[in-house]
Amino acid sequence: MTQTNPTPPTIEVMWRPGCPFCGSLRRGLSRAGVATIEHDIWSSADAAARVREATGGDETVPTVFVGPRALVNPSVRQVVDAIRAADPDYRPVSASATGRTGGVAARKVLSAGAPRAAR
Hints:
Elements: E1 11-15, H1 20-31, E2 36-40, H2 45-55, E3 63-66, E4 69-72, H3 76-86, H4 95-98, E5 107-111, E6 114-115
Parallel strand pairs: 1-2, 2-5
Antiparallel strand pairs: 1-3, 3-4, 5-6
């Protein structure tokens, strides 16, 4: 009998404005139906500190946290694989679940620790 994970991992994307790799990953995760919480490291000292801790002292972005696991500059496939490793029952967010069309997943963007409207 397979035991299911009752709490799916939180997927947090650390990014910064103007980073083309961040934009590409964020769009790819959205298209893949991955719901994320996003942190702008230039607006949040806590987010920048988490990235430095995960990367050995620098602020390489995008850095994605799947639960406690950090992925530095990952591909969409690597993020999805990490989510599935943490939660074998993982299913992407559907457009109907987010109330949006075109397969865009829910995103919550956090800046300076304060939530902004989901994009």
